[in-house]
Specification:
The structure is a single chain. The chain has 151 residues and is mainly beta. It has one domain: CheA-289, Domain 4 (OB fold (Dihydrolipoamide Acetyltransferase, E2P)). 7% of the residues lie in helices and 50% in strands. Strands 8-1-2-13-12-9 form a six-stranded mixed sheet. It has a five-stranded mixed sheet with strand order 3-6-7-5-4. Strands 10-11 form a two-stranded antiparallel ribbon. A hairpin with a 2-residue loop joins strand 1 and strand 2.
């Protein structure tokens, strides 16, 4: 990754969540809120990865099922499913994940380029890999992940 205008090491705060067997991270600046147990209304003729929509304080928010987006076997929405609300352009989008676990500080110098695929998921959805003590965090490329939504 190219260094910014400053040569200092910088850190990135990553919200961590699990989808299938994949531990994902998302820069916390993208995260608006995390919700649990919100009724999702199915939208007919939507792409298969769109689980539906939710009403978030009067705003209709599209919910994307990351398991389907990553071609992982979908799971029924259960108590453990959570919806991470992210800001994309001028609207909020919900990312349905299995569970949200933590927030970590990742030093930019410790973030490596993503492989071409990670646990069977195409690498274009990730901007990097961060190594924790006992696991790898796949850092989401939120722009690429949601780009197909608007084609």
């Amino acid at each position: 990754m190219p260094l910014s205008h400053s040569a200092k090491n910088t850190t990135r705060r990553l919200a961590l969540f699990e989808t299938g067997d994949l531990l994902c991270g998302l820069d916390i600046s993208h995260v608006q809120e995390i919700n649990k147990n919100i009724a999702v209304t199915v939208v007919h003729r939507a792409p298969d990865y769109v689980r539906g929509v939710i009403n978030l304080r009067g705003e209709i928010v599209t919910v994307v099922d990351l398991r389907v987006k990553f071609a992982i076997a979908p799971s029924p929405q259960g108590e453990e499913s959570q919806i991470v609300i992210v800001r994309q352009g001028d609207e909020n989008i919900g990312l349905m994940v299995d569970s949200v676990s933590d927030v970590v500080m990742a030093d930019e110098k410790d973030i490596e380029p993503p492989p071409s695929n990670l646990a069977g998921v195409t690498g274009r959805f990730f901007i990097g890999i961060y190594k924790l003590e006992h696991s790898l965090v796949a850092i989401l490329n939120i722009d690429e992940l949601l780009a197909r939504e608007y084609e």
